[in-house]
Specification:
Helix content is about 35%, strand content about 10%. With about 60 residues, it is an alpha+beta fold. It is elongated, with a radius of gyration of 17 Å. It has one helix and two strands. The protein has a two-stranded antiparallel sheet. The structure holds zinc ion (ZN). Zinc ion (ZN) binds next to helix 1. Zinc ion binds next to helix 1.
């Protein structure tokens, strides 16, 4: 059985430096938690931009 914490095989998250990285985003490694919040953040920015352009409508808690 392979140990998942073999230092030769595990890449740690560049943001928290604790969790095992599961994705590389814009040249940096992220674990599940950090990657998820990064993607959510980027999606929120994208949604706000789309809303500013009038392409989509956000619900009332997302006032610009
Ligand atoms: Zn992390």
């Amino acid at each position: 059985m392979l140990t998942s914490y073999n230092s030769d095989m595990v890449v740690l998250c560049d943001k928290c430096n604790k969790e095992k990285a599961i994705a590389k985003i814009e040249g940096k490694y992220y674990c599940y938690v950090c990657g998820k919040s990064l993607i959510l953040e980027k999606n929120l920015i994208l949604l706000r931009n789309l809303a500013k352009m009038g392409l989509i409508k956000l619900n009332s808690e997302e006032k610009v």
